[in-house]
Amino acid sequence: MKTKALESWEKDILRCIRCAYCFVDCPVLKELGWESAGARSKIILSYGLKEGEIEPNQLIKDRLFQCCLCAQCEINCPAKVKVASVVRAARRDLVEAGHYFEAHRMMKEMIKKTGNLYGEERKDFHYPKLGAEFALFVGCVGKYREEESLKRTLELLKELGVSFTTIEEVCCGGVFGDVGFEASQEDAEHIKEEIKKTKAKKLLTTCPMCYRTFKEDPRFKDLGVEVLHITQLLEKLEFPVKTERIVTYHDPCDLGRHSDLYQVPRNVIRKFAPNFQEMVKNRENAHCCGAGGGVRGSFTRLSINMAKKRLQEAIDTGAEVLLTECASCLHNFKNAKKRKQKIEIYNISEFLSLLMDGEVK
Amino acid sequence: MLKQLRAIVGEENVSDDLADRYIYGSDASIHQSSPSVVVRPGSIKEIQEILRFANREKIPVVPRGAGTGESGSAVPLDGGIVLDLKRMDKILEIRPQDMFCRVEPGVINDELNRELKPYGFFFPPTPASGKVCTIGGMIANNASGMRAIKYGATRDAVLGLKVVLANGDLVRMGTSTIIQASGYQLERLMVGSEGTLGVMVEATLRLKPLPEERAVGRALFYELSQAGDAVSKIITEGIVPSALELMDEVAIKSVNKALKAGLPEVEALILFECDGIKASFNHEIQKIKKICEDCGAFDIIISDNPEEMEKLWEVRSSIFPATSMYKEDRIRATLAEDITVPVSRLPELVEGIHRIARENGIIIGTYGHAGEGLIHTAFLVNPRVSDEWDRTRKAVDEVFALVQHLGGTTSGEHGIGISKAPYFKKERKELLELMRGIKKVFDPHNILNPHKLMDAPEDFFTATKLRYPVKERR
Known about the structure:
The structure holds 2 protein chains of 2 kinds. Chain A is an alpha/beta fold. Chain A has 18 helices and 7 strands. Among the domains of chain B are: 91-209, Uridine Diphospho-n-acetylenolpyruvylglucosamine Reductase, domain 3 (2-Layer Sandwich), CATH 3.30.465; 213-405, FAD-linked oxidase, cap domain/gating helix (Vanillyl-alcohol Oxidase, Chain A, domain 3, 3-Layer(aba) Sandwich), CATH 3.40.462. Chain B contains 17 helices and 21 strands. In chain B, strand 6 (91-95) and strand 7 form a beta hairpin. The chains are: A alpha/beta, B alpha+beta.
């Protein structure tokens, strides 16, 4: 197989000393057991493909796609190898050579047809407001998979008097870089145009993946507005409510390891939940929920098993409530939760809205 | 072969897929050589059955832990079966009253110590890879690490072993007692045998009480030779620190670059640790400080803050991979790696390595468990340039010649594998036939990790494909 994207990552691939320190806390390796599933092996397989020592087959493809791109390995790597970037590049080359997952290709088609990842009938939350301070971008997962939670988030923003306006969204395309496809420039232009129309100076995102995409994706280089994640806004606001319940927090990888926003959501939680309990693995060492990197779409059981483990870690803290601020993490945790498990799972903003309406304690 | 193996361990624990064969054909060494099949047994019984089958069919079997070895011990030279033992990761018993624990081979070093902590005990070997390496691999290579100066190497902690022999028989070696004088200490023979004599399936390990307190010191030196002198003098004074580590400029700059460690970028520094009861080790710490000062050290810092100490040791354990960050176009190739000399010869060794590097126009970083006479050599090469490999190979030859001249040994703690075998064979030349005889008794059909140690290829560089894109090979 001819590789192209991997060529740019040769230095990282060669810098990997293969010490295997990245095996520690690699969530996929923990689930699958085979060394070939671990982070180090993804670098070795990438090397093999790049140097033509191996040719793609089903398992090589699986192994390179069985990665949530959570980047825990990068935290543990003293040689600072950009493992997630190498994996992304390997996927790009695989896809280019026709080795893609149908579920991922379908997402491309779905977006073309419906503007969202799931191919669902278009839903729009209409909160249009001229002259709003924030243009709001909610993303596909929230809108089409965690609608109730998202509605609560929007309620909260209204109740707190945040001046925002919705736009006619299409998928930001962030996921495509993760699964080896090229994201649509046309969609990016549409989003930029929509934001421009609002005349807002700031873009508020509820989804950490969208947040990252707007901040990092070259397609949005000329976005021209400040991009904020909702936790960054909430940190500046005050809430007239408190919960006495024990609360813990899960760091979404896109918000934490990829965007360095660890303290901000904790500052928000501290304002209304004095009984906060950290999980043993937190901040840059927080275990992944298993939803990222296209794993949920192509390896659902693997994804859910990772979520089950992370959820158990939350339960082990003694917390009654698990908070996060990511529709993907939220969705995966809810799918992983067994009925007998009493812990309640919410996005921070959703929980705050419920708390303010007296619907939870 | 696949059919029989699947019948023994189940389909999900056997793979002959290219992905697995490629991955299990490498470790942290420079070598790449794939097995025919990878098997992940989950019980002693399964391992016995696999070996019975392999012995009958004369198929090579290479046991493997986490694949963190730096010499290629777990890289199969003759294809065959790689036996991934990581599924066997149970701590079977912890008996503080008898000062031992029983574990399966796939237990990870740091995880064992986490479990032992509440009992007030620990398993002393402290390899830098402790967070990922397995007990089985540590025994097979006689790993040690920075605390061996006080607490000994893995061999000193192995009281007993259960071993599956090449013919599938299960035997028990050693005891569960702290001492024994009951004939041949075969469990000791297994230590450092690198999978050539049997498959270790259970280990009884001696535990040590956790010291109540520790303190760590750091001394900076303008010259590497001053640091070497200080180490030698500390040992001569009869002081037994629980760690005595040396880092040269390459190591210091690498961790600063990789981890933002913030260490002063001097030519050398020494890290020392004393443990036990503060009242008694304070005296030792002060003595070490004085010796360092006499040897020209400056800016000596001593701390007993647990967070600071942990941070410092974390930095230390990161040097191996971090040296790949030292210079843009160079990567760390695992060569020589753990050469060891009598401690008094350490200054000559370190000085000699840097001379060899200069003369051959290459970079070699040096650091390691100086108090044990062990130096890790970080060969930093541009892997695409064949001329650089030529000079590197010459330097490796010269480093090992120097080690032998100084009365040292080829490997202090990583084992021989493939990369060090030619030098090991020189060092132990009068013992090679005896070793072959022992191997034959244990493994008459030569199925267990064949062509390693005394039977390894004469030229490590051409023994396997290299895992680097070097353009030309000799």
